[in-house]
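TOKENISED FOLD:
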Amino acid sequence: MSSMTVLSVMRSASAMRDVAALSGFGRTATLYALVLVFAWIGAMKFTAYEAAAIDGLIASSPLLSWLHVILDQRGVANLIGTVEIAAAALLALRPWSTIASLVGAMLVAATTLVTLSFLFTAPGWEQSLGGFPALSVVPGQFLVKDAVLLGAALWLAGDTLQHRRRAPSEPATAHSIGAHRT
């Protein structure tokens, strides 16, 4: 093997390690960014301010309006906050339990799907700009970011399932979150 070939193989191997490290960092950053966002948003649901802010969205939603029959405004917000905090906690367990993390990712996906449905059930199109597709600031632009959260949750769920398929009897470790064996 010529020295140029050895050098190019070494560079290629180094580049692959760099790509794997970057991918692992991105995976971990995505996981814990979702944990942070859902824990924070969930905790805010326990405030009177947030309960009042989401009340109109809940009332206009065919998926959630029934909650007002059994709970008051604060009770509905507290229930939603509890689900969001539980999802964050389950996601955070990824180093110890891929099953918990998978359940957390699916809870985030379900929550963001419901939230995205508000785009169709709440008044969110800016009429002064001609309506659809011009989103109002609230709730339209406020809600559309959930498309990214949905994508991140589904990606993490798939990543977790791939990890379990490769090593079903192996618990997730801090190392396995950031780097996958190929």
